[in-house]
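I have a small job for you when you get a moment. Would you make up a two-line entry for one protein for me to read? No commentary is needed, just the two lines. Write everything out right here, beneath this request.
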Amino acid sequence: MYLFGFKCGCGLRTIPGIIRILKWLFRLVFLLLLVVGGMAVVGYYYPEKFLCSESGSVTADIIVILGGGSHERPMRAIELYREHAAPRILISGSGDDEINRQILLRAGVPATAIEVEGHSLTTHENAEFSLERLRAEHLRSAILVTSWYHSRRALNTFAHVGPDVQFYSRPSYFAYDRKDWVRLGIYKKIRMEFLKLPGYWIRYGVNPL
C-alpha cells in the first residue's frame, strides 16, 4: 500500500502492537498513580502509621541514640537500658551529645556504658559515623532510638549504610497523640519527614518504604 508516495504497509502492521504497548503503559501508570495516591491519603490522614517504625521487644549489642528531639530520645534509651535491651549506649549527633550524656548519667547509666559520637549533623552522617564505631568494635546488632516520626527514615538509612549489621527501631512516643501535634510543633516535623524520605531516596538511594 502506498500513501502520499510512500510504502507504509509494514508500518500499518505494527500499529496493533504499538496500541497494545500503549495500553500496557497506561495501565502501569494508572496503577502507580493509585499506589502513590493511596500512600498520600494514608500519609495525610494517618502519618503516624507510615512514619513510625517499631521493631517490638528485641535485644541487641548496643543502643544508638540519634541527636535531636526534645530530650525524649535519651529518656527512651534509659527505659530500654533498664529493661536490659542492650548493655551499652552510643550517643550520635553533634549539638546535644553532651546534654544527652548528662541525662543518661543522672538516670544512673554508668559512664563506662556510654559512648559518644559527637560529629554527625544529619541522619545519614549518624549512620555513617556510628557504623564506623560498631564495625571497629565488631558489634553485630543495634537498637535505634529516635522520635517516632523520624524512626522510619532513620531505620532505613542505617540499614542502607550498614547491611552487615542488624538494626532495630524502638522510638520514643513523645507527642504521638494527634492533639499534641500543633501545640508541640510536631506537624512541621511530620511535613519535613515526608519531604526528606524521597530526598534521601534520590540523594543516597535509601528506600523510603
